[in-house]
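User: Okay, second chain of the day. Same drill as before: sequence in, structure tokens out.
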Amino acid sequence: MTVTVATGLWQLDPTASTVAVRHKSVWGLVTVKGTFTGVTGRGEVAADGTATGTLAIDAASLDTKNKKRDDHLRSADFLDAANHPEITFAVRGAERQAGDVVHVDGQLTVRGISRPQQVTAKLVSADADGLTLEAEFTVVREEFGVTFNQMRMMGGPTTVTASLRFTRTAV
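Assistant: Same drill. Structure tokens below.
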């Protein structure tokens, strides 16, 4: 499918978007899955087809369906949501490649630590009123100061999956 994206301003539709994480725990035997329920964002598509924007995630909105685990993940051992309430992904540039592939150069900020992050996304739909991007990438949590690892139970990267629906804003 090849779709065209209109220039202009775009706003994330949080009711039609998801940002989820999964991480192997207990020596790789159990996968912990969670979804961030507080996600906002905006973007702008320029006349040359490139895009910039920002995605903001409420760190305290992580939901793994286990309150005790969620409280621990929000604590200073992991996301430190009390001191760093927002996780951000700043898109410095996004450019459409062959087909519906979008190469995204951005900066991910977790716990106040920023690192460059490149993501390959797929433009799965676009029309005059909205567009949907899907992406999956990995994050090395230690690079963002998340080093808690009781009994060396948690190794490897965390996988982030996003399905982001943007609607065109009035000009």
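The helical segments are 67-74.

User: Thanks, on to the next one.
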